[in-house]
Request: fold
Amino acid sequence: MTPNTDLNIALFERAKAVIPGGVNSPVRAFAAVGGTPRFVQRAQGAYFWDQNDQQFTDYIGSWGPMILGHGHPEVVTAVQAAVLEGFSYGAPTEREVVLAEQIRALMPSMDMVRMVSSGTEAGMSALRLARGYTGRNKIIKFNGCYHGHADALLVKAGSGLATFGASSSAGVPADVAKDTVVLEYNDVAQLEEAFAKMGSEIACVIMEPIAGNMNFVRASVAFTRRIRELTQEHGALLIYDEVMTGFRVALGGAQSLYAQQIPGFAPDITVMGKVIGGGMPMAAFGARREIMEKLSPLGPVYQAGTLSGNPIATACGLKTLELISRPGFHAELHLKTGHLMQGLKSEASAAGVPFSVDWQGGLFGFYFLPELPTTYAEVMKTDGKVFNKFYHAMLDQGHYFAPALYEAGFVSAAHTDEDIDRTIEAARQVFKTL
Ligand SMILES: *Cc1c(COP(=O)(O)O)cnc(C)c1O
Reply:
């Protein structure tokens, strides 16, 4: 297709004139891989069609929410019915109560839930709640984990271990960044050092239990156990950011997987998003009752939202949760994702390409590295040129992966074995050229 007939290029040019970078969220801009973003016209099941009407097998699913695939008929019907009853009231509804009950039933670490409209909002509110509950200011986060774009969370490691963080975005005051301590993921020694130095000042540790924003990196069981012990010893809260993993890696979230290996394990606060809205703007955070009762209007920690618990979003989320609660849903999804990952890995090794994979439920990561990474620094050792070549060759053939080597991938229930076999076959050809 020439630039003159490529409608994605034409639209991207128009977009860049009126939207910064032509996109409403940076990773959509293809900055990491180069080239022109595909503008989506419509989507159905495991596919979407771009502005040129080219069909793609979708391995991002809106970065997680579309676990059932696009346009599941039962979800569409639920949303259509909700639309007819009104878009938003600014007053409570039954569906919010049912959804909160449903979330609590699936994730018993949460006695109570507060609904918001984005993962960023949920993470920011959870942080305020942890600080309000403990009366402390400092927070610990880990390099490579993403928790939305609140000021206190856009912080990278400072010069020395556990020294003051430095903001990773212009516009974040140094005064805000200084209370965020950034440590290496999976580094037990660093964590112990930080708690030994300032344990009594730490309000919370916030983490992705399986990091899905530095590709796919699991927290080790030893690391997870130590975080739980140290936070408890020092009176700090443990916040699990399950915006990506919640209802995607398992019905009970990543916390249910760690609880299988660490008896009695549970985080104090859980942050949810993506799947719980089924593609509509919906997120939430929850915790034990004594923590949640600190929230306004019961307690002194303020939090609010005009569109929070939106009636159309709750209809979409509830139907999605109902459908994924079917027994065996996540086990099937895990097998399907495994089929894709094992297929890619075996084709890569047949072609002599260093490659490693990991997956859980409908979330996956693959690396052009001989061994799975355990930290952000290791993830970033990936050869970007090799990834980009693979990425674009797959894209040209209609297989849409996340456009950056540090992003995870997503499989939905709508992907068939045939879809996945076609992707593996395409990759087989591409690996030979790398
Ligand atoms: C996507 C994501 C967020 C932010 O959610 P938004 O809805 O994009 O604001 C926060 N935490 C994690 C782990 C995420 O994957």
User: Anything to note?
Assistant: Residues 118-120, 123, 146-148, 208, 212-213, 241, 243-244, 273, 283 surround pyridoxal-5'-phosphate (CB under 6 Å). The chain is about 40% helix and 15% strand. The mean pLDDT is 96. The first helix runs from residue 7 to 18.
